[in-house]
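Problem 12. The chain below contains 388 residues. Write out its predicted structure in token notation.
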Amino acid sequence: MKTSMPNLLYRPVGVRIVSYSQGMTGKGERLAVLRKRIYESVSKGAVAMSIVVYPPTLDWSWMKQRPQQLLGGLARSGRTVYYCNKTRADRGMERVEPNVYVVHHYEKWLRDDWPRIRAGSRLPVGVWCSMPMSGPSAKRDIEPDWIVYDCADDFGEWHRFERDMVSVSDAVVCSSERLYDRLSSTYPHIRLKLVRNGYDPAMRLHVESAGGDAAETNPGRTPRAGFVGAWAPWIDDLLLRKLARTGEVEVVLVGPEFGRTYDTVRREKRIRIEGLVPHADLNRHIAGFDVCLIPFKRTSVTLAANPVKAYEYLAAGKPVVSTDLPECRRMGDVVDVAVDHESFIGAVLERLKRPGDAAARTRYALARTWDHRCREVEELLAELESGR
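Solution.
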């Protein structure tokens, strides 16, 4: 759906009045201008809800992940979000949710639409980046009042771009304690905030009627151990083949190929590959699992990961078995962590017999939703936009 440019108005809400200063240069000068904009809106009895631009990283409709969740949350709080797809298409902006506009051709949008949007609004402008390569160019092209780098992955090949990204950022957000420790050690003077991943209640996994046909409600079928996520190089396919060959469980894989193919497991009789499914259908798949899996190899990427799927599995009350990942260990008793293949398979088979406390798992997820995480981000943005 092609849409005209949104009408960017101030929203009347309760506000905290902030002062502003003059005579600054560089980042200080930009901050003074930002404070002035907010101050002027306050004097009119309104508060400026900022514009947020997300440079091309991944498409809005490809696997709903951290960027879509956080930026969607910022939009629900009243900010206007321009989410720029990685895939270029000759289409106009598309309104996909209230206050969320998908940009289908970033360079064309920068040339034709962004100058008019910027000139027609006095709202503060921010850039939210999750790829370190995009920061410096976004600063040049968008000319934002603030930039936040959201570091959620520890890809070694990205490290060479990181220093430049941090140098243009007003704050850095990260998703795991391992990332927090590395970033705070490498860049001790940055404003850094830990915001982990979360559960989306719109998936309704916590609702008992979410669907599915787990073995406990359908005794006639083989129990299922399922994984939901990208079939990436860090997935331990050997572990999954060993689990399937026990003959005690069917292994179900839900997610797209990412950097590798399913060829190594395709011929296994007790492994079923569902591939990429619509986000709206994930609850049905997860509800049909008897045990949920996080079968990651221990790599620099996975050791720094805070797996989104853990929260979704737990919301459904399902037993979760993970390889030895720091963030899963921090989840305590609601996740079974295994140190090797033998103990992983043993934990899965044990949970088939004794599933454990489903209600405790659901409570854990509901205390850590994306709404909780978005409030943590809003606190940070309020500090940036008030100059604190």
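Discussion. The chain is about 35% helix and 15% strand. Students who got a different answer should revisit the alignment rule from Section 12.3.
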